[in-house]
Design brief:
Blueprint: H1 17-27, H2 35-50, H3 57-69
Length: 74
Amino acid sequence: MSAPSPNPPTRTIHLPEEIVRAIEERMRGSSFESPDAFIAFVLGRLLDQHGEGAFSAEDERVLKERLRSLGYID
């Protein structure tokens, strides 16, 4: 993973409160200063592991099904 720029542009993403609470629990005792920092790190690592074209057709189908069940997409 390449080094992040000092002040990269950011966007707001809405997550269910239960997920944020679970993240806060998971990051307790770590060096992460906020759930945002933890999430950015984890997602960055996930993207690095899979490289470009990360999702297979099956991965995409499962992801869409999960997002639909959570009410994020129709």
